[in-house]
Specification:
It is a single chain. By secondary structure, the protein is mainly β. The protein folds into 2 domains: 41 residues; 399 residues, 7 Propeller (Methylamine Dehydrogenase, Chain H), CATH 2.130.10. The strands form 7 sheets. Strands 2, 3, 4, 29, 30, 31 and 32 form a 7-stranded antiparallel sheet that branches. A 5-stranded antiparallel sheet has the order 1-8-7-6-5.
Length: 460
C-alpha cells in the first residue's frame, strides 16, 4: 500500500471515529446529565447503604386536587395485591370530612403496574410523597422491584425515583432531637430468608431527599422490621424479629433496638418476646407499647428518663390473633390494637386496652380484613383502620367505638398506611402540614396533645 493511500485511509478512519464520538456524546447527553446529577445527589451514606438516584424530573403543573385553608385531607395508597384487580399502584387523596376520595395518581406503568406499597410517607411540610414499590409478598422478594417513587404532593407527578438497594416497605416522617424534618425509609427486612432487606435509611427533604444516615442489618446485628420515633425525636425504636417467621418466629424471641438519632447507634437492646412488630409512645415519652404477633400480646415498657436509666418491660395484655399496628387515643388512656392475623387467618377486630391497668376493655368487630395500620385523626376523634384484604378504610368514632364510615379504594386496591394533612393560608397561597401518620401525631396536633388542649384545624 502506498504512503498516499495509507494517509488517506488513516484520515478516513479518524473522520469516522470523530463522527462516532460526536454521535455517542450527543446520544448520551441526557444520560451524562443524569449521571452528573446523581453524583451531586449521592452522599457517603447513600453509597454505604446502596441507595442511588435513578431519575429526577420536573414535577410542576396544575394541582391534582383542590386544597383550601381549613381543609383536612387524608393520603393513602391503593395497591395491586391481596386479591385486588387494581392494575396500578397509586396514591389516593380523601377528603377527611366527607370521607370521599377526590383524586388519585397516574404513575408511569414501569413504576406502578402490578406493584403495591405497604406504607406511604410524606415530608412534614407536605411537599413530597414517598411511595415504596414492591410486588405481592407471596412472590420471591429477592426479585421484587427495589425503588421508591417520590411524588410532588400537589401535582402527584414524579419528582424522583431512587433505587433503594433492597425491597422497600414503609416510609414515615419525624423530627429528630435537633428539630430537623426528616423521612425514614425502611426495607422489607423480614418474612423469608430472601426478603431482600438491607436495613433503613434517612433522607432530608430540605436537601433534595439526600441520604444523610441509616443503618444496615449488620449495624444492628439483626433484621430491623419497623421503626418509630419518640415524641421528642431523640430516639428511634426498631423491632428486630428473627430472620424467618416461618421457621423461627415462634421459637426465637426478638428484641427492640433503641437508637440514638444524634449518633445513629444502638444504646439499648430490650428483649420483647416473639415477633415484635410495632411501637407506640405516650405523648410525654415515659411509656411505650410493642405488639408481639407470635405471642398475641402487647407489652408495656417504662422508658428510662434519666441518664443511665434503662427501659424495662412492666406489663402485658392479651390481644386478638397476630396483632400488628397500635395507636393510643388522644389522652393516652386507651391503646387500640389491630388484630391483623399476621401469622394465620385474616383478622377483623380491634382490641382496646386500658393503659393504666393493662386490661382489655373491648374487642370491636370491624369487618376490616387484615387490618395492619391504625391512624389517629389529628383532633383525636376518629381512628382510621387500613384494610388490606377488604380493600377499604374503616373509620371508627373513638368515644362510641362505632363504625361511622367505610371508604372503598379505587379499583378495590389494597390499602396500607395513611397521612392527615391540614392546610392553612400562608402569604398569597395555601401550605400543608402533616399532622398525623403511621408514626403518630405531628406538628400542631402533637403540640396540642402534649399540652392536653384541643386541636382545631386552621381557619377557612
Amino acid at each position: 500500500m502506498s504512503a498516499t493511500r495509507m494517509k488517506t485511509l488513516a484520515l478516513g478512519l479518524a473522520g469516522v471515529g470523530c463522527v462516532w464520538v460526536m454521535a455517542w456524546s450527543a446520544g448520551l447527553g441526557d444520560r451524562q446529565t443524569a449521571i452528573a446529577q446523581q453524583d451531586t445527589w449521592t452522599t457517603a451514606e447513600a453509597q454505604r447503604l446502596g441507595v442511588r438516584l435513578l431519575e429526577q424530573r420536573d414535577a410542576s403543573g396544575a394541582p391534582a386536587y383542590s386544597a383550601a385553608s381549613g381543609d383536612i385531607l387524608f393520603f393513602t395508597n391503593s395497591g395491586t395485591s391481596y386479591g385486588s384487580k387494581n392494575p396500578k399502584n397509586s396514591v389516593v387523596v380523601v377528603d377527611a370530612r366527607t370521607k370521599k376520595p377526590m383524586a388519585y395518581s397516574d404513575i408511569d406503568p414501569k413504576y406502578s403496574a402490578k406493584l403495591g406499597s405497604h406504607g406511604i410517607g410524606m415530608s412534614l411540610d407536605a411537599k413530597y410523597i414517598y411511595l415504596p414499590a414492591m410486588t405481592s409478598i407471596a412472590a420471591a422478594l429477592d426479585s421484587s422491584p427495589a425503588f421508591v417513587v417520590v411524588l410532588d404532593a400537589r401535582t402527584l407527578k414524579i419528582h424522583q425515583v431512587t433505587a433503594t438497594g433492597g425491597t422497600p416497605h414503609h416510609a414515615k416522617a419525624f423530627r429528630d432531637g435537633s428539630g430537623r424534618s426528616l423521612v425514614l425509609i425502611e426495607h422489607f427486612n423480614w418474612s423469608t430468608p430472601n426478603s431482600g432487606g438491607r436495613g433503613f435509611y434517612i433522607v432530608d427533604p430540605a436537601d433534595n431527599n439526600k441520604v444523610i444516615a441509616g443503618m444496615s442489618a449488620g449495624d444492628l446485628h439483626g433484621n430491623p422490621y419497623a421503626g418509630f420515633t419518640t415524641p421528642d425525636g431523640r430516639f428511634l425504636y426498631y423491632t428486630v424479629p428473627p430472620p424467618s417467621r416461618g421457621e423461627l418466629g415462634r421459637e426465637v424471641p426478638g428484641w427492640l433496638a433503641k437508637i440514638d438519632t444524634s449518633t445513629w447507634r444502638v444504646v439499648q437492646s430490650l428483649a420483647v418476646g416473639h415477633i415484635p412488630i410495632w411501637t407506640e409512645f405516650s405523648k410525654d415519652g415515659r411509656w411505650a407499647w410493642v405488639t408481639n404477633s407470635g405471642d398475641n400480646k402487647v407489652l408495656k415498657i417504662e422508658r428510662g428518663q434519666k441518664p443511665g436509666e434503662r427501659d424495662t418491660v412492666v406489663g402485658d395484655a392479651p390481644t386478638g390473633e397476630g396483632p400488628y399496628g397500635l395507636r393510643l387515643t388522644w389522652d393516652d388512656t386507651e391503646l387500640w390494637v389491630a388484630d391483623k392475623g399476621e401469622l394465620g387467618p385474616s383478622g377483623k377486630t380491634i382490641t382496646i386496652v386500658d393503659t393504666a391497668t393493662n386490661r382489655v376493655t373491648a374487642t370491636v368487630e370491624t369487618g376490616c380484613l387484615r387490618n395492619d395500620h391504625i391512624i389517629l385523626s389529628p383532633d383525636g376523634a376518629e381512628m382510621w383502620a387500613m384494610c388490606n384484604e377488604s380493600h377499604d378504610i374503616v373509620v371508627l368514632d373513638v368515644k362510641t367505638r362505632a363504625i361511622t364510615h367505610r371508604i372503598p379504594m379505587p379499583n378495590n386496591g389494597d390499602v396500607h398506611g395513611g397521612i392527615f394533612v391540614a392546610y392553612a393560608r400562608s402569604g398569597s397561597g395555601v401550605v400543608g402540614e402533616v399532622v398525623s401518620d403511621q408514626n403518630g401525631l405531628h406538628g400542631s396536633a402533637l403540640a396540642a396533645a402534649i399540652k392536653r388542649t384541643a386541636w382545631t384545624p386552621p381557619a377557612r
